[in-house]
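Entry 14. Structure prediction run on the chain below.
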Amino acid sequence: MSNVSYTKITRDGLWDNNIAFVQILGLCPLLAVSSTATNGLGLGIATTLVLIASNMTVSLIRNIVRPEIRIPVFMLIIASFVTAVELAMNAWFYDLYKVLGIFIPLIVTNCAILGRAEAFAARNPIPASILDAISMGVGFTLVLVVLGSIREIIGFGTLFAKADLMFGESVSWMSITLFDDYSGFLLAILPPGAFIGLGLLAALKNVIDEQLAKRQPPETILVESLESNKLS
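Output returned:
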């Protein structure tokens, strides 16, 4: 693809075409693991690493793989990198690996990763594909951390509890107890709480988008719409 807008790619991944809010992909790990901010951050980083590696590899071989077998090849590439990330977490972040459990290997089935490989990396050069992976991964991670923070605060009265699972004892200061003798709010840490929290965050994003759209002149909206159509 020629005339790739790196600014548009970054904005799409972080906000306009966010994996969780707009594409509505990766909801299984998003809803299951986001009970705390630490868990969300861990899974978000793992997903981002797989996104970057898979997008870069798919872009590198995009002119070699025949169209008839591209999906199986993409899945094999993604599965290989997920296995590497899983083994690395098992070796260096074992406690966090035990907490995240089955959701690390399930990154293979995350439609967002295969979707970016098929829709973007297979059609664009390596630099643009890497930027797309970073933007989409960071956007997904931010949703995980924000949703996890909200659920943890309401459900447990803490923030970044057990941060040492990721970064060691040196970051124990990140663990904050907001409410002493807090009995907790069970709904926030159960699956229904995750659905409610994600829905409220998505609604907030829509409200912000509407307010921003009202402030933009019609010519700007038309240009952005044309750029979006070119990228798709």
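The first strand starts at residue 158 and ends at 159.
Filed with the rest of this week's runs.
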